[in-house]
């Protein structure tokens, strides 16, 4: 397995389950491909993370792993999390509650851990609300 995945023998599918070969300009023009069909799948993100780790790019691999968890979180919720993580926007308790919520509701363990790590850093830097 190597990058780019589209050049490999792996059957890459979008979030909606369409194969990469099914996503063409003609299919878009004919209305058979929608915005949902061009969103990346969590499986593809995980594969990219595996490739990154195989190449010794551990941090990039971890980023892809977190990204794969974000696929299942609604956009509105992602915006809430983004704003909560801005300096001086949230209390320690609010961030810890959000970390627990996304872990429990979306099984976003790596993202939950990232928020908890942010709480520790924000506490040391004095940028919690």
Key terms:
single chain; 129 residues; mainly alpha; Hypothetical Protein Yqey, Chain: A, domain1; 2 domains; 6 helices; globular
Indicate the topology.
Elements: H1 25-29, H2 42-54, H3 58-70, H4 75-84, H5 92-106, H6 109-125
Can you tell me about this structure?
The chain has 129 residues and is mostly helical. The chain folds into 2 domains: 1-71, no CATH class; 72-128, Orthogonal Bundle (Hypothetical Protein Yqey, Chain: A, domain1). The protein is built from 6 helices and no strands. It has helices spanning 25-29, 42-54, 58-70, 75-84, 92-106, 109-125. Helix 2 runs antiparallel to helix 3 and helix 5 packs antiparallel against helix 6 (109-125). It is globular, with a radius of gyration of 18 Å. It starts with 24 loop residues before the first helix and ends with a helix. The mean pLDDT is 92.
**Estimated radius of gyration:** 18 Å
Q: What is the N-to-C succession of helices and strands?
A: HHHHHH
Strand percent estimate: under 5%
Detail the poorly predicted runs.
none
Helical coverage, percent range: 55-70%
**Arithmetic mean pLDDT:** 92
Largest sheet: none
Distance between the termini: 45 Å
């Amino acid at each position: 397995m190597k990058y780019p995945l589209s050049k490999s023998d792996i059957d890459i599918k979008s979030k909606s389950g369409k194969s990469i070969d099914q996503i063409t300009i003609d299919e878009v023009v004919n209305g058979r491909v929608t915005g949902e069909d061009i969103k990346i799948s969590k499986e593809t993100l995980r594969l990219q993370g595996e490739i990154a780790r195989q190449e010794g790019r551990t941090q990039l691999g971890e980023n892809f792993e977190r990204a794969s968890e974000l696929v299942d979180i609604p956009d509105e919720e992602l915006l809430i999390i983004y704003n909560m993580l801005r300096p001086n926007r949230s209390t320690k308790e609010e961030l810890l509650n959000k970390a627990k919520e996304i872990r429990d509701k979306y099984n976003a363990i790596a993202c939950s851990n990232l928020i908890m790590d942010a709480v520790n850093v924000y506490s040391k830097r004095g940028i919690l609300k």
